[in-house]
Structure formats: C-alpha cells, structure tokens
Amino acid sequence: MADYHSPSVVDPKVPLVDMSPLEQLLLTHIYESEPADGGVYLFAELSVDTMPSVNVGKLRVAYAESLAFESRILPAVKLWIDKVSDAEDAEETDFDFDAHLDTYAHEVILQDIVRRSPTVSYFTIETAHTCTKMRSDGFGGSASLIHADGIEFQSTTGFLEMAISALNLPD
Questions:
Q1: Which of 39, 59, 122, 157 lies 20 to 30 Å from 109, alpha-carbon distance?
Q2: Three-class secondary structure assignment of 82-95
Q3: Strands 32-36 and 39-44
Q4: Cα–Cα distances in Å, from 90 out to 26, 30, 95, 129?
Q5: 152: nearest Cα among 121, 107, 113
Q6: Rounded alpha-carbon distances, angstroms, from residue 5 to 2, 98, 104
Q7: Contact (CB, 8 A) for 125 and 10
C-alpha cells in the first residue's frame, strides 16, 4: 500500500498581531505550528489537515473575540455555531470542519490576514507531493502565492504541461 504525503510550509511567519483569535484557532488546527518571533510558523509535516476538529466551546469564544475583524470566515463559523447550539453537551462536542470548509479555506483565511496587515503583503505556501512507493502520480509539488488581490497557484504538473505545450513538443 502506498502512502501519499504533502508536506507544506507557509512563509513568512504569520504575525500574531495580524490574526484574529478565530483565525489563529483555525490555522493552528489546519497546520502544525510553532511560535516564532512574535508570529506563528505554519507547516505540515505530512499534509495540511483540511478536516480538523475544533472544540465548539473554543470556537464560540474565538468567534466572539473576532467580530471586530474583517474576515470572510465569520459568517460560515456563525452558521456552524448556530447549527450545534441546540446539541446536547455542545460545549464538549468537537466540530468537524469536513463538511464546512473546502480544501482551500486556509488560503482564504491567510488572504484575509494579508488584506488587513500593515506589515505582510503576501504569503507563500510550498508543498511537496511524495509517496512511499515509486508511483508517477505520487511525486511533484505546488506553490501558492496569496496576496490581497488574489490567490495564485501552480503545480509542477501544470508547469510541465505549459512548458511542453509552449515548446510544441510531441506527447
């Protein structure tokens, strides 16, 4: 059986002063993290967790403390909180983001931070795609550039297809 991994790094570190409590809670569940010079270094040793579970009680507190920040994630989190508010022991229930965040929600959160930040004008995410077996679909990489006006993405496969096409090389 082959195991696929996609280790990733976010650069530069995310300044703590630029993050809302909700963004910090979500990003540190989606990524592994380490404190770094007034910020947070985000990375994934195996893969970004696109389906993290966050305690609903902590989610409520972070949401309430983040209402003053402009963030596209706030309305979605409000819907999640309302959905579980009637659940028995909702404070102790983990909320699975699987059904609520798409794979790229972490990029949207990072873009919101860039839009508000007086010091950070972009983030990059570099990802390596590896596999424990020598399979052609298990290797490669990608890079994302997240800035105030957009999110740019390029995979190594996309780059190769574009280069081959530009050179009119036969298949």
A1: 157
A2: HHHCCCCCHHHCEE
A3: antiparallel
A4: 18, 21, 9, 37
A5: 107
A6: 10, 19, 17
A7: yes
Q: What's the token pair of residue 85?
A: 């508010």
Contact status, residue 59 vs residue 81, Cβ threshold 8 Å: yes
Q: Please write the tens of the pLDDT for every residue from 111-159.
A: 999 999 999 999 999 999 998 888 877 789 999 999 999 999 999 999 9
- Type and span of the H or E element at 110: helix 105-116
Indicate the length of the chain as a whole number: 171
How does pLDDT run across 49-74, given as a tens digit for each residue? 877 778 888 889 999 999 999 998 89
Domain residue limits, the chain: 4-166
**Residue partners of 110: CB distance under 8 A and separation at least 6:** 10, 14, 27, 123, 125, 146
Q: Which residues pair with 5 in a beta bridge?
A: 130
Are the C-beta atoms of residues 102 and 73 closer than 8 Å to each other? no
